Structure formats: structure tokens, C-alpha cells
Amino acid sequence: xKVAVFNAKSYDRDSLTKAxxxxxxxxxxxxxxxxxxxxxxxxxxxxxxxxINDDLSAEVLRQLAQQGTxxxxxxxxxxxxxxxDAAQELGLTVVRVPAYSPHAVAEHAVGLILxxxxxxxxxYNRVRDDNFSLEGLLGFDIYGSVVGIIGTGTIGSCFAxxxxxxxxKLLAYDVYQNPQCLELGVEYMxxxxxxxxxxIISLHCPxxxxxxxxxxxxxxxxxxxxAMLINTSRGGLIDTKxxxxxxxxxxxxxxxxxxxxQEEELFFEDLSDTVIQDDVFQLLQSFSNVVITAxxxxxxxxxxxxxxxxxxxxxxxxxxxKQCQHTITKR
Length: 331
Ligand code: NAI
Description:
Number of helices: 12
CATH architecture of the largest domain: 3-Layer(aba) Sandwich
Bound molecules: 1,4-dihydronicotinamide adenine dinucleotide
Structural class: alpha/beta
Order of helices and strands: EHEEHEHEHHEHEHEHEHEHEHEH
CATH topology of the largest domain: Rossmann fold
């Protein structure tokens, strides 16, 4: 099928081209993001493949449907960037990649924990500067720490297994108890208690209306003073301004984020020659106990290969008139 691949970076092109040797679709790569200005490029393409920072609002979807698009294939697990109501009304099928490598994201969360705890970001710069002092680099043993997991689905349970290996006590909050986590000894409890008892909290639930700003001025009050907060899920789970206040008061002792509320203005682009206009982001960056990565949790060779294969396999199913296995249906 003719596929318009939006937001196509070199690594998307490479992984999709490699996987396409089996599927033989007609892929056209557009480096630009999909939005109202660029949607015209998709004219005549029955399939449009997108990523998390593309605009799939009702207006864009309407235009796509008018231009002949039938299938939207997002190369992501999360789908909060797609107006599913509008897609359904317009008769557009939407598919995603539900799990490409939970290990990639879970391991990245652990990377943020180790970096923040042992201050590797600061140590790296010091040694490069011939400063071999250890002052200010004191960490704590992860072994024996209490780790709170918010959302114990595919990624959260993978993270639980890794932290279990470190010898941590595991607590969790989820609307559903995962039997694999229960078997591991994870104790489920209300959110407030998880926040109160944990030394490290890691967010692994999706961004939904009910999880928007799950971490806010009120819930942050329950945090153990000096606790570490990690978010590799979606920026909207944390009220960033409230988190900044909590960092300033010492309530949050460490913050590691791979996602940021306003990331669509920043992430995935080289903006090193521009003046960043986002004051909240710049303030966040200024704290030495904050480590920010630009949504790279998913970014491993293994994950990219799985994303490409699953996306193209869904398109093949659609081309053959089959029910696509990874169709997103409205909750
Ligand atoms: P999943 O669907 O397997 O697990 C999500 C878990 O959250 C489920 O156990 C679910 O019951 C729970 N949950 C749902 N509503 C909740 C609520 N109101 N409160 C508490 N828990 C709730 O999803 P998966 O694959 O583990 O991914 C989790 C999130 O990770 C995705 O939604 C996505 O936003 C993010 N993600 C981030 C990536 C990155 O590169 N940083 C890459 C892939 C996913």
C-alpha cells in the first residue's frame, strides 16, 4: 500500500526500509510533522504513519479522510495524540504498536535512577574538568530502598522485575493488580500510601483524563521528603510547576524525566542554535538534581526493529482486508 510516513527521522527510514523487504509497501518518507499545514502531503495516501508529536486532531483527521486516507498507523504505544472520537466518526482505522520493548523504557527509568542517585551527570563533567573531588556526589544504596510503581502494566512490571533484582521493597498503585507483580511480592496500595512510603517513585501509567496531573501540588504533599520521582511515561502526568515548587522546598529530592508536558515544542529536534522560549523548561533544567532526557526511553535497536515490523504488519493486515490485531478501540 502507499504509505506516507510523517515525522520520519533517519532511524525511522532505516528501520522501516529494512522491515519492508518482507512487506513490500510503497513507503514515502516526509521529515516534517503532520499538522494542518503539512496534511496536504498525504493526498492520495491510503495509509499515514505518524509519531507521538504529530497532530491528529479532529481537523487534521477530517482533512486526511477527505484526501483518501483510510488507516492511521502510529509508531508508538501511547495514543493520546489521536482524537479517537473523530477517527471513529470519519471511519478511519487507527493502529498502534502496543509493546515493542518494555525493557527499553524500563531500563531507561533505571538509568535515570542510577544517574540521579550517584550524580553521574555531574561526575562526568567534573572528571572532564580534571576535578576529582567527591564533595556533593554522595549517593545511597538502591538495595533496600522502597520503590513505588504507578502503573504495573507491560513496562511497569518489567521495571518491577529489575528493581526486585536490586533488592528493593516494591509497592504499587494501579487500577488493576498484575498477577506477575503479585507473584514478585509487589504490594498494592492506594496512591497516597505509595507516595508516602516510597524512596523512589516511577510512573508507568498512561496519560488519560483521570491520570492528567496525577502528581500535583496536593499529591506531592504526601511524598517522603527528598524522594526521587521518575517519569518515563507521559509529561502530562506531572504538573510541572507544582514539581518545581516541590524541588525548591526539598520535597522532591531528585527528578528524572524522559517526558515533559510541553515536549512537542522541543523534543526530537536540534534546537541548540535557538533561544528556548519555554521558561518552565529552562528553570527545570537549572536544578542539579534534575535529569531530563528527550523522550528516548523507547530508543533501542531492538525497539525500532519491533516498531517497524509491527507497523508494517498492521498495514499488511489492512491491505488484505483482515481485522487489524492492533486496532485502537475507544475505551
Ligand atoms: P500498559 O497499558 O501495559 O500499562 C499501563 C498500566 O497503567 C496498566 O496496568 C493500567 O491498569 C494502569 N493504569 C491505567 N489507568 C490507571 C490509573 N488511573 N491509575 C493507575 N494506573 C493506571 O502500558 P505500557 O506499555 O506499560 O506503557 C505505559 C506508558 O509508558 C504508555 O502509556 C506510554 O505513555 C509510556 N511509554 C513511554 C515511552 C518512552 O519512550 N518514554 C515508550 C513507550 C511507552
